[in-house]
């Protein structure tokens, strides 16, 4: 890594810490046919510290700054599963059986929606395991605080323990299983799976095609990668990427949910400057044609609508919409 790359990793981690990082949320209203699972918690694992650790871990693996972790700004308004949100909801009781049997079923049946859900759970398993090391538990216990804080901390630890119990039913390498599940999701066109596969190093035409398609459909995490990478790496023209960047900025200025989007735009700009060699620390929106601005306005409206009206388990067609 060059000095600029190292500075980029540090800057992205700092941005995440400034925003407050919460990776995923546990649905407070699980489905009616759900099997018993861990008690719901809207502040599910990992905590801000664990999120930063996850970024640092990915940094050492070489995929650092493009890792997108939903900021706590999104969590603040996600008090109900039906409310505005960016991060996907994790419902551990969604499917019957053990996590292992669920994974086997998704792979054998080629169920893209189920595979995407289980891939997120395997990621949650890896983060929860880091939170439950003896050292991590000792640090939490030593943090002190009043009785109410201690009770909340103990309740959270119990949730983590229940999650870990489910995770420990998995037979085989969780990382390989997660990749296999994401492959199913990518093949089925499940929104977000191409982004996740790309974070694990996936560079196949199917993955890159899906990532751009999802960005053009307003998927926030995919937009971060599409706006912060070198455009040629994703099969984008410079003008296409500039349109995406302008749409992202417009969405971040939305009066209702813009505050949820802004940390992602900041993250994309930071990554583009430090890791992709951009000459400016902020995206330049000068010189766009009126046609590009009009398309950006349409895409920004899609981004905002996707957050206001979350579409879990969305599957969209294989064709990439034109972005001229």
How confident is the prediction overall: mean pLDDT? 78
Gyration radius over CA: 19 Å
Task: Estimate the global geometry from the Cα principal axes.
Answer: globular
Structural class: mainly alpha
Largest sheet: 2 strands, parallel
Spell the H/E element sequence: HEHHEHHHHHHHHHHH
In the predicted model, the low-confidence regions spanning at least 5 consecutive residues are: 9-81, 320-324
- The number of strands is 2
Question: How many domain units?
Answer: 1
As a percent range, the share of helical residues equals 55-70%
Strand order of the largest sheet: 1-2
End-to-end separation in angstroms reads 35 Å
Helix count, DSSP H or I runs of 4 or more residues: 14
> Which percent band covers the strand fraction?
under 5%
Topology, pairings included?
Elements: H1 3-19, E1 25-26, H2 48-60, H3 72-76, E2 89-90, H4 99-109, H5 112-131, H6 134-142, H7 147-167, H8 174-188, H9 193-199, H10 205-216, H11 220-228, H12 238-252, H13 258-274, H14 290-308
Parallel strand pairs: 1-2
Helix pairs in contact: 1-2, 1-13, 4-5, 5-7, 5-8, 8-9, 9-10, 10-11, 11-12, 11-13, 12-13, 12-14
Q: What is shown here, in short?
A:
With 324 residues, the chain is mainly alpha-helical. The protein has helices spanning 3-19, 48-60, 72-76, 99-109, 112-131, 134-142, 147-167, 174-188, 193-199, 205-216, 220-228, 238-252, 258-274, 290-308; strands spanning 25-26, 89-90.
